[in-house]
Amino acid sequence: METYATFLSYAIPGFVLLILIESVTARLMGMKINVGLDTISSLSSGMTNTLKSILGLSVVIISYGWMVEHMALMQIESTIWVYIICFIGVDFAAYWSHRFNHEINLFWNRHIVHHSSEEFNLACALRQTIAAFIGIYFFLNIPMALLGIPTKVLAIVAPLHLFAQFWYHTRLIKRMGFLEHILVTPSHHRVHHAINKEYLDKNYAAIFIVWDKWFGTFQEELEDVPAVYGTKKPVNTWNPFLINFMHVWGIAKDAFRTKNWWDKIRIWFMPTGWRPADVKDKYPVQYWEKASDQIKYTSPASRSLEAWSWIQLVVNNLFLYHLLVSIGDLNATEIILYAAFIGLSIFAYTSMMDRHPIAVLAEGCKLLLGLGLVIQSNSWFGLETAIPGGLILVLAYMALAFGLTLFFTYFEKTIAQAKS
């Protein structure tokens, strides 16, 4: 965990820099690719995924190390060719796990957050899941285990493979010549993120587009069909925690409501979006029949609320970065409590962006947790050693955050109505 946290402490600033470069470049090109609250939601989702990763909130049914130890047909050294073979093997597994996530109702809940943005930019690449608690796709690594590819090789290749999928989430790069026949390009991935009927459930590949061409899921970007991004069933919230679990909650409600016992069981494993006949009409859900019907989600956020939301994002990213660089000096309990503080903060300010009153409750819980941590240790996880007066800054931030959450939730709207 400490090694992965160190790796993230270097990767995150790089991602942020590239997102800023994309935004500035788009402005110079006269393109609008970012919507303030959507971008904040995307980056906040990336923070929740990072918190999950460093807490190790995943259960692996059968570890790769166990498979190599008990199933390997040979032992091989860690040469450059082994790394290349491992990368191809990881990419093959990524294609099929990605496809399963799209095509099986329950498994869509593991992936919906990544598609929930109605924009397409580098920020939306960071919308990664916290809902995948169980590693169910271990069997896709069996071919690599049979070859005896060492665990340490996979441990290096897997995060590199994941981060290599970041760059093509952009509208700024058009076609890329001969690379279109080999690699996943921005053009290919724009198709994948679109809800147009021509594009739906296409281009699952992560790095090598050849998988889609071989397995019949390839679709070229069409000049006369501009991509419409998001999900067929809109999420209508900026809160990444809600987005991560809303699909499985919908399945659970349908399973409870249907009178057909067979439907109660099979709904979980039917094609994504399938619903029992006796609840489909009685409990309708919002759904874009045609991509042209889409109305993008927005919330009544003032400029001051959006500005404060940006400040919240920056401050909590600083908290997250402090946690990452300090993780080797903290015990397990401290790591969990610090992560809980940041998680509550994200839940609070993204709920505030939705103008939902639960933001006050979440911010209040965060304040109580923060004060309890300060009282217990008279410190803020060693921040004072790096920043003199760091504890005072943290206390001031917590008080300001709670006060402004009250203001934006209960008073700002009243003031605006009175002026009108």
What does the model show?
The protein is mostly helical and 420 residues long. Helix content is 59%, strand content 1%. The protein contains 18 helices and two strands. The protein has helices spanning 2-28, 36-55, 64-71, 80-103, 105-108, 112-115, 142-147, 151-163, 186-193, 210-215, 240-257, 261-266, 277-280, 303-326, 332-353, 358-377, 383-386, 390-419, and strands spanning 59-60, 134-135. The N and C termini lie far apart (54 Å). Mean pLDDT is 93; it is low at 416-420.
Count the beta strands: 2
Strand neighbour order, sheet with most strands: 1-2
Distance between the termini: 54 Å
Number of helices: 18
Low-confidence stretches: 416-420
Q: Tell the overall outline.
A: globular
Average pLDDT score: 93
Q: Helix/strand/pairing class, anyone?
A: mainly alpha
**Gyration radius, rounded:** 23 Å
**Beta-sheet strand percentage?**
under 5%
Order of helices and strands: HHEHHHHEHHHHHHHHHHHH
Query: What about the largest sheet?
Result: 2 strands, parallel
Fraction in helix: 55-70%
Give me the secondary-structure topology.
Blueprint: H1 2-28, H2 36-55, E1 59-60, H3 64-71, H4 80-103, H5 105-108, H6 112-115, E2 134-135, H7 142-147, H8 151-163, H9 186-193, H10 210-215, H11 240-257, H12 261-266, H13 277-280, H14 303-326, H15 332-353, H16 358-377, H17 383-386, H18 390-419
